[in-house]
Amino acid sequence: MNYETPLFFRVMEYADAAERDVIDMVSGNPDWEPPEALRAGLRAYADLEPDRFQYPPSEGLLELREEIAARRGVDADQVIVTNGAGEANYLAMARAMERDRGNEIVLTDPVYPYYPGKTTMLGGTQRFVATDGEGQLDPDDVRAAASEETAAIVVNTPNNPTGAVYPAETMRELVAVAEQYDAVLISDEVYDHYDLSGRFASALETDSAHRIVTNAFSKSMAITGVRVGYAILPPELVANAKSRHMLVNVATTRPGQYAVLQALRETGPDYYERNRERLRERVATFTDALDAAGAEYTTPSGSFYVMARFEDYPGTIANVERLIDEAGVAGMPGEAFGDSRTEWLRFALVTPRVEEAAERLAAYFE
């Protein structure tokens, strides 16, 4: 079986090899500080006894699972601590596929490209449902696309790449569609702390044996390299997922779990609000410059991405490389996210040089 390497790596390698200064707006790596309690937790961990450097419980440190469970209103036995949201999504999709209810996974278009990649890896087939111009998903469209072959419906809210935040009614209806077809709704909520609209609704708000929620601390705590995420599964589905996690990864980083637990306990809501406010300011700065460049763009309700369309400049990998060489700004081609946004480019607002990048784009396209 052939797996396609995600275009993220190709763009990053091209930008790194450029002979000029390039502002990186490719990947969602936050440029701001992690919580101070996380740094303190890592320092404290270095002085613990040798037994703390051995294998942790495979499903995660009990104290961390209990903390997550208390915050999410579930039982700790439903929580598996994973190597980021990436592994959590893999476990969820694999668990849905092994129920033998079909091998089709319904995805949105545009789509975060790792979801179709994981579908291929698991031997499934993709079926895409288009979102509207604002990135909103109509549950009736999902219902029309679903069938007896549907193993899972995968959604991401707040969304990458559109910045859409699905309202509570949408989430309830998506769970209902999964129940109707004996499928599993998988809701990736890794950007939940970057809801800029106040309308975020978790799939956990609808109690069901047909939904799995994935998340991580990678974005919310600005620690994409620490690799601590989690999956919350219904009691009926959790055992096999724990076994697969053990066979694939054995366990997740013990120091990272310890530090995340300290940060959860000691970090107040002001930390997350400061980061949301930073993003609001960057969105305004960036979109003002896009206005000046005559571009069409999305204004995110959540996450930290803006999609833009420039006249006669489709979102191809060749045009992204051209933009790196000639403007010194690296974004992602819209074609990486499916068929519906091939005219667009996606930019991650996770650099302190957002204003400079916007000025470069405005000058290039004026």
UniProtKB/TrEMBL annotation:
It holds the Pfam family Aminotran_1_2. One of its GO terms (molecular function) is transaminase activity. Residues 21-361 form the Aminotransferase class I/classII large domain. Signal peptide: none annotated. It comes from the Archaea. The keyword Iron-sulfur does not apply. Keywords: Aminotransferase, Pyridoxal phosphate, Transferase. InterPro entries: Aminotransferase_I/II_large, AspAT/PAT-like, PyrdxlP-dep_Trfase, PyrdxlP-dep_Trfase_major. Coiled coil: none annotated. Its cofactor is pyridoxal 5'-phosphate. GO terms for biological process: amino acid metabolic process. Homodimer. Belongs to the class-I pyridoxal-phosphate-dependent aminotransferase family. This is Pyridoxal phosphate-dependent aminotransferase. The lineage of its organism: Archaea, Methanobacteriati, Methanobacteriota, Stenosarchaea group, Halobacteria.
